[in-house]
Design a protein that fits this description.
Layout: E1 4-7, E2 10-12, E3 18-24, E4 34-39, E5 46-51, E6 59-61, E7 69-74, E8 79-84, E9 93-99, E10 112-116
Parallel strand pairs: 2-10
Antiparallel strand pairs: 1-3, 3-8, 4-5, 4-9, 5-6, 7-8, 9-10
Length: 118
C-alpha cells in the first residue's frame, strides 16, 4: 500500500509564503500525475494544483491559486512540492497530495495544516 506523507504547513500571515512537500512510497513515481488538494471542515476536498507525468502543459491550477501557487516535482526523491506565495485567509485548509486521477487514488495521508491569519 502506498504511503503518502505531507509536511511544511504552519501559521503564516496574509501575504506570506509556505512551501509544502509530499513524499510517496511508490516505485516508478515519475509515471504518476500528482495533485495537491485542500479541504476546509464541512467542505469537499478540492484539487488546487496538478502536475502531469508527461505532456504539455505540465501543470494546471484552480483559478483561485493561479499566479500564487506553483507545483513542482523531484522524481528522484518521489516528492512533489507546492510553493505558496501571497497567501490569503481563504487559503486556510488542510493540504493533501495524491494521484491526480480521482478514480484511482492512493490512501490519503494525514495532510498538513495551513493557517493564514494575522
Amino acid at each position: 500500500q502506498v504511503q503518502v506523507v505531507e509536511s511544511g504547513g504552519g501559521l503564516v500571515q496574509p501575504g506570506g509564503s509556505l512551501n509544502l512537500s509530499c513524499t510517496a512510497s511508490v516505485s516508478d513515481f515519475r509515471i504518476y500525475a500528482m495533485a495537491w488538494y485542500r479541504q476546509v471542515p464541512g467542505q469537499q476536498r478540492e484539487a488546487v494544483a496538478t502536475i502531469y507525468a508527461t505532456g504539455d502543459p505540465k501543470t494546471k491550477y484552480e483559478d483561485s491559486v493561479k499566479g500564487r501557487f506553483t507545483i513542482s516535482r523531484d522524481n528522484a526523491k518521489n516528492t512533489v512540492f507546492l510553493h505558496m506565495n501571497s497567501l490569503k485567509v481563504e487559503d486556510t485548509a488542510v493540504y493533501y497530495c495524491n494521484r491526480a486521477i480521482l478514480s484511482n487514488l492512493w490512501s490519503w495521508g494525514q495532510g498538513t495544516q495551513v493557517i493564514v491569519s494575522s
